[in-house]
Design a protein that fits this description.
This protein has helices at residues 15-28, 81-93; strands at residues 7-12, 32-37, 40-45, 48-54, 73-77, 98-99, 114-118, 124-128. The chain is of the alpha/beta class. The longest helix is centred in the first third of the chain and has 14 residues, at 15-28. It is globular, with a radius of gyration of 15 Å. It starts with 6 loop residues before the first strand and ends with a strand.
């Protein structure tokens, strides 16, 4: 377990919106609710967990952009190509805009079956079939 990721903590502009978005998605991917407090929530899968914390108002003046220094995107495994397709349908039903929709499901290349979209803060998310 020395090389496993322990946790990732993301600051978000609106904890309620992020909790609705990420809670649904992570639970669809097998994560379980882990921690909850006034300004944060987390979900855990095995020894790894993801944390979402409300950004203080004084730091909300510059919004996130994945092309700046820092996190570009988060990628998760689906269980299969069918799982990617199922999640893609659910993502659309939830009104989330797909990225590279005209190239779905091979926007990452002919051997890379995946869907790409953004969270409420425009952090890019990728769900890829094994």
């Amino acid at each position: 377990m020395n090389s496993l990721l322990h946790h990732v903590e993301l600051y978000v502009s609106n904890l309620r919106k992020s909790t609705d978005f990420w809670g649904w998605l992570l639970e669809e991917l097998g994560y379980e609710p882990y921690q909850s407090w006034e300004d944060g929530r987390s979900w855990k899968l095995g020894p790894t967990y993801l944390v979402f914390v409300q950004t203080e108002a004084r730091f909300l003046d510059i919004p996130y952009h994945r092309s700046r220094v820092g996190l570009n995107h988060l990628a998760f495994y689906a269980s299969s190509q069918q799982h990617v397709d199922q999640l893609t349908s659910q993502i659309k039903e939830r009104g989330v805009q797909l990225l590279y929709h005209d190239q779905y499901p091979y926007a990452g290349g002919s051997e890379h079956y995946a869907v790409f979209f953004e969270d409420p803060d425009r952090i890019k998310v990728e769900i890829v079939a094994p």
